[in-house]
Design goal:
With 488 residues, the chain is an alpha+beta fold. Among the domains are: 137 residues; 83 residues, no CATH class; 95 residues. Helix content is 31%, strand content 25%. The protein is built from 14 helices and 20 strands. Strands 11, 12, 13, 14, 15, 16, 17, 18, 19 and 20 form a ten-stranded antiparallel β-sheet that branches. A five-stranded parallel β-sheet has the order 3-2-1-4-5. The longest helix is centred in the last third of the chain and has 26 residues. It is globular, with a radius of gyration of 22 Å. It starts with 21 loop residues before the first strand and ends with a helix.
Length: 488
C-alpha cells in the first residue's frame, strides 16, 4: 500500500462529536426534481436508509427526532433498535414524526406545507440550544426549514451548493490540483452540448464515447452516453440514456433547466472508488472512509452498491485527493459531510503504466455509501483508522459489501419481519459476538416493490462478498418459491 501522508492521520467519526448529547433532527429528504426521483424503484422508502442513525442512541444523553413522509413500519424500527444494548431506553429517546403524505415530492417541501407537524417538531426539540438538523442534501428549502424550526443546519450554505454540481465539481477539482477527464462544463442547452461533443471529438480523435451529465443528476440517472464514432453522435440512434423513459426532448428540457457537462468516457477504468469527507465548523477537513463503487446500467454509469474499504493500491491516493478537494471547499465556507467520486485509469493517457486518479464528481451531501458505513461502524462499535483506511474492531479490520438493489418479483408482498426471520434462519444475520453478518435496510420497500438493501460485514472482503452472494441466493430462492406457489 502507498504510504499515507501525515495530513490524513487525524481521523474523525462521520457523525459530529457534538451529537454525543442534545437533539439530532434527522431530515432524510431527497430534495431532487421529482422527475428524477420517480426513476428509482421504491423511492418512497429511501427516507428509511438513514435509520442506521438510531444506533447512535447507545449514547445515553442523545435524543433523535426522525422525520419521514409516511410512518415507518414498527417492525423496521424494532429491527434497528435490536442492535442496541438497551432498546427500551433508546426507544424513549427516539421520536418518529411522519407528515402523512405519500408520493415522491421531497419531504422538506411536505414539512414546510405542514404547520402542525412543524409545531410538533418544535415541541420535541424543546428549546434545546444544541439541537441541529442533519439533511440528506441541501437546497434553499432545507435552510428555510432550519430557520422555521430555529435549528442549526449541518451542511453547506444554499449559495455554496453549486460547488457540488457537475460543473462545480470540475472547477473545484482544478483548483485543488486534481485531474479531471477531457470535457467542458456549464452547458446550458442542447445546442451547446452538441457543440461541446463535436469539440471533444476533434480534441480527442481516439475517444469512442462521451457522457453528458445533468448538473444535479444523482446515482447516474441524469447521464446520457453518446457514440463519438457515429456521424452524428447526439442523434437519437447514437445516444443511450441511463434512465428508462428518457428521450432527447425530455433530456433537452432538463439541460435547459439545470445545465450539464460533457466528458470523455475513459476506456476500461480500473476502478470507480469514492471517499467520504467531513468539514467541521472550524474548517478542519477529515477523510472518514473510502469505498469501491459497484456500477451497472448503460456504460456502467449507475450506482448499485459499494465495497469497503477501497483497494489498498489507490486507497491513500484517493484519500489525499479528497482531502485536497475538501480544503478548497472549506476555504469557500463549506461545512458538513460530502462524498467525492473518482476513476482510477491506466496511465499515462490511459494506455498503460502507473494508474492515475481523476475526479468524477463531488456529491455535496450524504450519499449511497453513507448509510452502509454508518451501519457497519455503529453496529460493530468499530473505529475508522485513517493511517490504513480500515474500520477496526478490537484491533482487527472489518470489511463489507453493500447494496440498495436486492430485488426479486417473488418478494413482493413479503413483510419486513419475514425478511429478518429468513436471514436469521439461514444463519446470515449480524452476530454481535463476532461483529460480522448481514444487516438489512430499505425493508419498507419489500411489500410493494420486492426490494431491499443490505450491508454484509466480515473480517475481509472475500468473506463479505460470500455473505452478499449467500444473501442474494437466499432471496432469489425465496422469490422463486413464492412465485411458483402463487402460479395457477
Amino acid at each position: 500500500m502507498h504510504p499515507v501522508p501525515p495530513s490524513l492521520v487525524t481521523g474523525q467519526d462521520p457523525v459530529p462529536s457534538s451529537w454525543e448529547t442534545g437533539t439530532m433532527v434527522l431530515l432524510p429528504s431527497l430534495s431532487f426534481p421529482v422527475a428524477e426521483l420517480v426513476k428509482i424503484t421504491g423511492i418512497d422508502h429511501y427516507e428509511e436508509r438513514l435509520l442506521c442513525v438510531i444506533l447512535l442512541l447507545a449514547r445515553p444523553d442523545l435524543r433523535i427526532v426522525y422525520l419521514t413522509s409516511q410512518p415507518v413500519d414498527p417492525a423496521v424500527v424494532d429491527y434497528h433498535l435490536g442492535f442496541l444494548p438497551d432498546p427500551g431506553d433508546a426507544r424513549r429517546r427516539l421520536h418518529l414524526v411522519a407528515v402523512g403524505q405519500a408520493g415522491p415530492r421531497p419531504l422538506t417541501e411536505k414539512l414546510l406545507d405542514s404547520p402542525d407537524v412543524l409545531s410538533r417538531v418544535r415541541d420535541l426539540v424543546g428549546g434545546d440550544a444544541g439541537a441541529a438538523l442533519l439533511p440528506f442534501n441541501v437546497t434553499p428549502a432545507e435552510w428555510a426549514l432550519a430557520s422555521t424550526l430555529g435549528l442549526v443546519l449541518d451542511g453547506p450554505g444554499a449559495d455554496l451548493v453549486a460547488l457540488g454540481s457537475k460543473t462545480g465539481s470540475r472547477r473545484v477539482a482544478r483548483r485543488a490540483g486534481v485531474a479531471v477527464l477531457e470535457g467542458e462544463e456549464e452547458l446550458g442547452s442542447q445546442l451547446e452540448v452538441v457543440a461541446a461533443v463535436e469539440r471533444l471529438r476533434r480534441r480527442r480523435p481516439e475517444a469512442v464515447q462521451a457522457v453528458i451529465k445533468l448538473n444535479h443528476g444523482f446515482s447516474g440517472q441524469g447521464n446520457a452516453l453518446v457514440d463519438l464514432t457515429a456521424p452524428e453522435p447526439c442523434s437519437p440512434p447514437s445516444t443511450t440514456f441511463c434512465a428508462a423513459g428518457e428521450s432527447w426532448p425530455t433530456y433537452a428540457a432538463k439541460i435547459a433547466a439545470e445545465g450539464a457537462i460533457v466528458e470523455e468516457v475513459a476506456p476500461s477504468p480500473l476502478a470507480s472508488p469514492s471517499a467520504q469527507v467531513r468539514i467541521n465548523p472550524g474548517g478542519e477537513v477529515h477523510v472518514v472512509s473510502t469505498h469501491d463503487q459497484v456500477l451497472g446500467g448503460p456504460g456502467s454509469q449507475v450506482y448499485l452498491g459499494c465495497r469497503f474499504p477501497a483497494d489498498p493500491s489507490y486507497r491513500a491516493a484517493i484519500a489525499e485527493a479528497a482531502l485536497a478537494v475538501g480544503r478548497v471547499l472549506a476555504g469557500d465556507g463549506v461545512v458538513g459531510p460530502f462524498g467525492v467520486d473518482f476513476l482510477v485509469l491506466r496511465g499515462p493517457d490511459h494506455g498503460g503504466g502507473s494508474p492515475g486518479v481523476v475526479l468524477s464528481e463531488i456529491n455535496l451531501r450524504l450519499g449511497g455509501t453513507t448509510h452502509p458505513f454508518w451501519m457497519a461502524r455503529l453496529a460493530t462499535g468499530g473505529r475508522y483508522h485513517p493511517a490504513t483506511g480500515e474500520l477496526l474492531v478490537d484491533g482487527r479490520p472489518r470489511c463489507y459489501v453493500a447494496t440498495d438493489n436486492l430485488r426479486a418479483p417473488g418478494l413482493i408482498g413479503w413483510s419486513p419481519g419475514q425478511a429478518v426471520e429468513a436471514v436469521a434462519a439461514a444463519g446470515l444475520a449480524y452476530d454481535a459476538a463476532t461483529a460480522t453478518g448481514v444487516t438489512l435496510h430499505l425493508l419498507g420497500a419489500l411489500p410493494r416493490h420486492g426490494k431491499l438493501g443490505a450491508t454484509c460485514i466480515a473480517e475481509d472482503l472475500a468473506g463479505a462478498a460470500a455473505r452478499s452472494q449467500a444473501l442474494g441466493d437466499l432471496l432469489a430462492g425465496v422469490g422463486r418459491d413464492r412465485s411458483s406457489s402463487a402460479a395457477p
